[in-house]
Amino acid sequence: xxxxxxxxxxxxxxxxxxxxxxxxxxxxxxxxxxxxxxxxxxxxxxxxxxxxxxxxxxxxxxxxxxxxxxxxxx
Length: 74
Fold this sequence. Notes:
Shape: elongated
Order of helices and strands: HHH
Distance between the termini: 24 Å
Number of strands: 0
Number of domains: 1
Number of helices: 3
Structural class: mainly alpha
Oligomer: single chain
């Protein structure tokens, strides 16, 4: 997540197409790691009663990131 935060900042700062394409490639690469491994690790470490609300919050946050990015670049 921290690496992706820096990538978002890089997208906002850069004006070079090649750098933007590279950053989007890294987003795709890191998203699979963050979503698959991070989510599984998170649910394994929390109590059963907290898994449902945390899963809902996690998925809403994931969708919100992409909505904000689309609105910004629109």
